[in-house]
Design brief:
Layout lengths: L3 H9 L2 E4 L2 E4 L11 H13 L13 E9 L9 E10 L3 E10 L2 E11 L28 H5 L3 H8 L4 E5 L14 E8 L7 H11 L4 H4 L13 E12 L9 E11 L2 E10 L4 E13 L2 H6 L5
Antiparallel strand pairs: 1-2, 2-4, 3-6, 3-9, 4-5, 5-6, 7-8, 8-10, 9-12, 10-11, 11-12
Helix pairs in contact: 2-5
Amino acid sequence: MTSPVSELIDLLSLERLENNLFRGQSRDIGTKYVFGGQVLGQALSAAQATLDSADADKGPRAAHSLHAYFLRAGDIEHPIVYDVDRTRDGGSFSVRRVTAIQHGKPIFVCAASFQIVEPGPEHQISMPEVPKPDDIEPTPPISAEALAKLPSKVQRWLNRMGPFEFRPIYPRDELNPPKRPPFQQVWFKLSETVGDAPELHRALLAYASDFHLLGTTTFPHGISYYQPNVQMASLDHALWFHRSFRADDWLLYSIDSPSAQGARGLARGQIFDCAGRLVASTTQEGMIRVLDAEHVAAKPSGG
């Protein structure tokens, strides 16, 4: 059997159909639709694969930002085609636009920008003072009794051994969530060591950056994705890469939600390495709907 990390790397390794056309497989990890992080990671992998036109004498061009919109829910049972537009290759920057297509319709669009390595002014904010990951106990598994009360897809999501290990500073019971201020810090890392290719580590971080963001917007309201009267979905996602990092080393995801309104919530994240270096930043807005009893009764079970 292959490990969850090997499966994820395979998932991010796309089949090249044409110069600018790629196909990625989909993976059922217990979510109702394709996990947004999968599409983010695959789209970035597709864009990175088209940088062969960059000037070799100036060195490789590394992704520094990605801005994306989720247009339609992805079908877990079918692959996704990624169409890359080589929008620009300038002296220092390159831009790629990526459209993810399923069943003949776009489900996701993004623009990614790449830059050669250049010196310049540098500063960053300080990492929050939190316990180190080795001082935090791993999150205990949910009891079999609690799992049995949930739809089968939710059971698979909560009971799976994923490729990343997460250690929240202040764990929250997602099945019986209390009301809390809208912020959290979570240590995370890939559960196995992988190769040194920076492109791979950026795609892995893009995948992992979709965890925890939107959930933080629910904290003040005492609700969670696992409740039958709650509907949540990512609408957009932005990711900036600031400094080098490894996804198989511990990283701290510090997240806050400045606002929720109009059935939408906004979350912001900053990702630090163990040395306190700010390596990436994120933002995401998502849909949050709390349904009344009549709508809940009409919802499919999701089993």
